[in-house]
UniProtKB/TrEMBL annotation, chain A:
Organism of derivation: Marinobacter pelagius
Keywords: Cell inner membrane, Cell membrane, Cytochrome c-type biogenesis, Membrane, Transmembrane, Transmembrane helix, Transport
Protein name: Heme exporter protein B
GO CC annotation terms, alphabetical: plasma membrane
Membrane topology: Multi-pass membrane protein
Family classification: Belongs to the CcmB/CycW/HelB family.
From TrEMBL, chain B:
Record's protein name: Heme exporter protein A
Organism taxonomic ancestry: Bacteria, Pseudomonadati, Pseudomonadota, Gammaproteobacteria, Pseudomonadales
Keyword annotations of the record: ATP-binding, Cytochrome c-type biogenesis, Membrane, Nucleotide-binding, Translocase, Transport
Keyword ATP-binding on entry: yes
A molecular function GO annotation: ATP binding
NCBIfam families according to UniProt: ccmA, PRK13538.1
GO annotation terms (biological process): cytochrome complex assembly
Amino acid sequence: MTGNPVRVHPVAEGVSVAGAMKAVFLRDVKVAFRQRQDLLNPLLFFVMVVTLFPLGVSPEVSFLREAGAGILWVAALLSVLLSLDHLFRHDFDDGTLEQLVLQPQPLFLLVLAKTLAHWMLTGLPLVILTPVLGVMMHQPGNSIGILCLTLLIGTPVLSLIGSIGAALTLGLRSAGVLLSLLIIPLYIPVLIFGTGTVAAASEGAPVGAYLALMGAFLFLALTLAPFASASALKISMSNS
Amino acid sequence: MSEPLLKAVNLQCERDERILFRELSFSVMPGTVTRVEGPNGSGKTTLLRILAGLNDAWSGDLYWCGQPRARHRESFLRNMLYLGHRPGIKPLLTPMENLHALMAGRRPVSEAVLSRALEGTGLAGYQNVPCRNLSAGQQRRVALARLLVADEPLWLLDEVFTAIDADGVQAIEALLQQRAAEGGAVVVTTHHDLKLPGMQRIVLGGGSVNDG
């Protein structure tokens, strides 16, 4: 105790928004590295789904060359979906989410920091693994580059849109099915343009327009999704 | 400061088609301790969550320093500390890391101060043990360490005495009293028989406010 008279502090006397976002981001990264199996789960899922296709459907080069990009995109989408429930669930259960909602900084920015941490821990490793799996799927070098680029733009969109669903289903005991039903329709355009870009590139068509559209998805999600997630979090908080 | 920090006028809350309380009006003055009491399920936690701004399913008016709270949300959040049922402690992080993360969003505090706060709650020597290896009471003590570094004038504490041993309970009582003497306001819900001089009581279930 300081012994000073207790007084009402002006808002400016506190932590800056950037500082608070950084703290949220760093805490999530730290917690994730203490629980490495959770970190490996989506990655292993991604690798397993992709390797099962040559075994289960056909190991022929012509098939893999044609379907490879689509398989990689679908596997990446599903493994992000698989990891979404963890985005807020643990924080909700141990009460840190309450404290996050009660921080004086705008909630949508703190949610954005959390979502970026989620992307860095799930989406980014998938992008990094993609070249290896791309070679395995007999993708030409040019396609692999474009595939990585589309996933690099696309996976943050998946995390951002997913955060809305994760926040909305937070109050439910078993959110899994509902979360997928809510989120998959919103993922479809990203998937179509992601795989479309790679298909266009493999045919030698210009991909500028496709990439511009994907960039538009990213910025739309970046600016709108955190607001929706923050509102959804407040609703879930209110009902618990 | 003679103005109430927090003023509730005609609060009403309904849950599962049951009215928990209605026409509940009270003021939380600086330098006072307010105890919310009532049987299980009477809405103590709900009332505290409404006051903290975590629950939106209520009607009535809430004023923060005389202004409608909804319009001064940032100022309110900056000056209010809420400790809930769930302590807000990450089991995978150490007490030090937890405390640091919780303070990082509110006010920069040096490691030395945080370390002293942990020692003050009897967690000396546990600073670097992951919280999941600590007992329930020790985990609550990590959350309580925040009270020792808090500069917020309004504290909303839900069941602070849960899982705390007799010495700890005494220490918390003394802390609340000292906080009130310094000019802070504290609202606690508890089943523990808390008796402090000048304590305001809000009794739910019957729905009345008594000055004790």
